[in-house]
Write a structure and sequence with these properties.
This protein has about 140 residues and is an alpha+beta fold. It has four helices and four strands. The longest helix is centred in the N-terminal third of the chain and has 19 residues.
Length: about 140
């Protein structure tokens, strides 16, 4: 069983012709349940910031306008992922098996990526690389 999980959230965009990643958060989760909770929390956090309620106090009246139907709906994708029990179970199974999990969605300007991996699996991969190096 993998005991600790490293979780990251990053937004990627293009600046001056180069793909740039902006870290939005990192969390070292001591349990699988907390890793899943944090990923859902960050997905909800992104969705709320991209698509706040029109009556939110921090949003001035008239500041929000609908986007065209052709624009990908990142907040809806993230909210649907958070609410999908089968997807949550799949992520839990993948992490418990020591595999890297990547949840990503994008609109026309930005890609949002949630990553999680087992700290134990990461350590084992590093050790395998160390043992694979010949000693002179």
């Amino acid at each position: 069983m993998h005991d600790e999980f490293l979780c990251h959230v990053t937004a990627y965009g293009v600046c001056d012709g180069r793909r740039i990643g902006v870290p939005l958060g990192t969390y070292r989760a001591p349990t699988l349940a907390l890793a899943l909770w944090w990923l859902r929390d960050r997905a909800s956090w992104i969705a709320e910031r991209l698509d706040p309620r029109p009556d939110a106090e921090h949003v001035p009246s008239g500041a929000l306008v609908p986007v065209a139907d052709t624009v990908p709906d990142v907040p809806a994708v993230l909210r649907a992922w958070c609410a999908d029990v089968a997807q949550q179970e799949h992520v839990a199974d993948e992490l418990a098996a020591g595999r890297l999990v990547r949840i990503a969605t994008s609109d026309d300007t930005t890609e949002y990526e949630l990553l999680a991996e087992s700290v134990d699996a990461w350590r084992m991969q590093r050790m395998a690389q160390v043992f694979g190096v010949p000693v002179a």
